[in-house]
Amino acid sequence: MDDKKINLPRLGFKFPRFWSFKIPLPGGVHMGGGKLILGSLSVVGIGFLASLFLLMSTGESEIIWPAKGAVYEAPSKIGQVLTNAEPEEAAVPSQTLEIQAVGGTRLSEVNLSNISIGKTGLNTPSFEIKGLSQTDSILIDEIIFKNSEFPSFNIATSNIYKLVASTGVVCAGHTFSSVTDTSINDITIGSARGAADYTASDMTVDRIRILQTGAGGTGDVLIGKVIVDGVRSWIGALDISNVEIGTLTFENVRVGDDGDINSSDCVMANTVKTVTVTDGIVEKPIFIR
């Protein structure tokens, strides 16, 4: 019987734009009067191409804290891309740094330092700590704001066991209308075992947000300490609501958006309950721009 030779066609693969890649398949190998087709080599070549295509299609890297323009669902430090809420800016990449936590989440510490925040046209708070409600809230053992600047701050619907505003705090007018209630608790967060922490420094962002999310009735979010050091905003308020705090301290903080001490830029509403308040705020015509 005459030897027959089987010729395989050349397979061509075209890559996007500029790659053109061809793998010639061999005709065969002579073995004992016959020919053995090297199908295995063809499989290897095709497998290589498939792997390369997979690499190209999944090459986008993960967003890792503290990369901005992302929301991080605590305790994870892998973020999801955050889009601007304003319809006219939906196509513009967000620069917000946001932590979300559902009831029952425990965080040992959130430490934010040397961060500039704000963007032109911002009509929301530039720094926000917000629980779901007065029954599903964020419980924080201690919050410290120091060496920072904000156009204004507002605290509402919260319980603060101890508030200290030292003589280094300057406001363009302030009103503290909190109600004294000795029945509220001094929040103490125990062991940090198994709790996540978030640290960010030396960056510029649109906003910073620490939010409780999820359905009501799932419980409180527990945070050991929040440290805000050297965070400066030129637009957008510091806003705290639906939070229970053991100790809230302001040190060397400047607040003001109009240079008018007759209109309060530092406000603690009458929906806030406190046990101890040390008010050493000095009123000066501060205008942060």
Describe what you observe in this structure.
The chain has 289 residues and is mainly β. The chain has 2 domains: 47 residues, no CATH class; 221 residues, no CATH class. The strands form 4 sheets. Strands 5-7-6-8-18-10-20-12-22-15 form a 10-stranded mixed beta sheet, with no helix packed on it. The protein is globular. The N and C termini lie far apart (94 Å). About 6% of the residues have low confidence.
Index terms:
289 residues, mainly beta, 2 domains, ten-stranded mixed sheet, ten-stranded parallel sheet, 47% strand, globular
Main sheet: strand order: 5-7-6-8-18-10-20-12-22-15
Largest sheet: 10 strands, mixed
Beta strands, count: 24
Order of H and E elements? EEEEHEEEEEEEEEEEEEEEEEEEE
**Oligomeric form:** single chain
Structural class: mainly beta
Distance linking N and C termini: 94 Å
Query: Treating each run of at least 4 consecutive H or I residues as one helix, how many helices?
Result: 1
Tell me the radius of gyration.
30 Å
- Low-confidence parts: 33-41, 51-59
Number of domains: 2
Strand content: over 45%
Q: What portion of residues is helical?
A: under 10%
The averaged pLDDT comes out at: 84
Shape: globular
Sequence-ordered SSE layout with sheet pairings:
Blueprint: E1 11-14, E2 20-23, E3 29-31, E4 34-36, H1 39-57, E5 63-64, E6 70-73, E7 78-81, E8 97-102, E9 106-117, E10 127-130, E11 138-150, E12 153-156, E13 159-165, E14 170-171, E15 174-176, E16 179-180, E17 196-205, E18 208-213, E19 221-233, E20 238-241, E21 243-255, E22 266-268, E23 273-279, E24 282-283
